[in-house]
Specification:
Number of domains: 1
CATH architecture: Alpha-Beta Barrel
Shape: globular
Strand order of the largest sheet: 1-4-5-6-7-8-11-12
Strand content: 15-25%
Order of helices and strands: HHHEEEHEHEHEHEHEEEHEHEHH
Number of helices: 12
Largest sheet: 8 strands, parallel, barrel
CATH superfamily: Aldolase class I
Distance between the termini: 43 Å
Helix content: 40-55%
Number of strands: 12
CATH topology: TIM Barrel
Structural class: alpha/beta
Length: 272
């Protein structure tokens, strides 16, 4: 039976075809070439390592397939400003409209007023979307291993790197972690972070222990954990401390913050 992710990937492929029919690749490439230089997403998250602090990628999203509408009073720029003031090191912005209430235009709005690097959070299935992201001002992109074969994933990472962008390569399972580590490396000299998503895509449930479990797998001993991002299911300062204890000092937090009356205040509480 197809999963929610399978359905989204099929829809994304249709959306890319429709976008290409409306705007040629060359036009998007030209716009990308005219965009302001990207800010270093990786450096923003790793420049000040500390055993007792966590770098937060704070996420902006209106809704999700698992949670439904998360926030009715949704103003991406106001939320981004709140995150910045509260100590976020970077912003993740959902740009998928159908399932997450996002828009590519949010990235330019945020980046024009908030001095933080911005990740285009979407389901990338084609290099066209990377050119789109750069044209919109994105500093980083997400690649979900579960959505991509190894060749396409490597091609997309290379393109993003050539454009000066950081790639967050996300895995949800042991099999895909092995595949990613066999296909690519992660180092401070590169332009990629490894994301471990704590959400089970079959049951849409989260378990924070997944990050630790995957990092204990055979073949991960050489992985620099300072380049690992734990995603989903992170809600408390204790969660951050638990992750720091295993060497993970970067997290991506979205739904928990977006569901609070004041997302910025929620981020301050998380970082307290």
């Amino acid at each position: 039976m197809p999963t929610i992710l399978d359905e989204i990937v099929l829809r994304k492929k249709r959306e890319v075809a429709e976008a290409l029919a409306q705007r040629s690749l060359r036009d998007v490439q030209h716009a990308a070439e005219q965009a302001d230089a990207p800010r270093s997403f990786l450096t923003a998250l790793t420049a000040h390592p500390s055993a007792d602090t966590t770098s937060v990628i704070a996420e902006i999203k209106r809704k999700s397939p698992s949670a439904g509408i998360i926030r009715d009073d949704f103003d991406p720029l106001t939320i981004a400003r709140q995150y910045h003031a509260a100590g976020a090191r970077a912003i993740s912005c959902l740009t998928d409209e159908v399932d997450f209430g996002g828009d590519l235009a949010f990235i330019a709005q945020i980046r024009a007023h908030v001095d933080l690097p911005v990740l285009r959070k979407d389901f990338i299935v084609d290099p066209y979307q990377i050119w789109e992201a750069r044209a919109a001002g994105a500093d980083a992109i997400l690649l979900i291993a579960e959505c991509l074969d190894t060749e396409t994933m490597s091609t997309c990472r290379t393109l993003a790197e050539n454009l000066g962008m950081t790639t967050l390569v996300e895995v949800h399972s042991a099999d895909n972690l092995r595949r990613v580590l066999e296909a690519m490396s992660f180092s401070h000299d590169g332009h990629a972070l490894l994301g471990i998503n704590n959400r089970d895509l079959t049951r849409m449930e989260t378990n924070l222990a997944q990050t630790a479990e995957l990092l204990e797998m055979t073949g991960t001993s050489e992985l620099d954990r300072s380049l690992v991002v734990s995603e989903s299911g992170i809600k408390t300062p204790h969660d951050l401390a638990t992750l720091r204890a295993i060497g993970v000092g970067i997290v991506l937090v979205g739904e928990h913050l977006m569901a609070q009356p004041d997302p910025g205040e929620a981020l301050q509480t998380l970082l307290a």
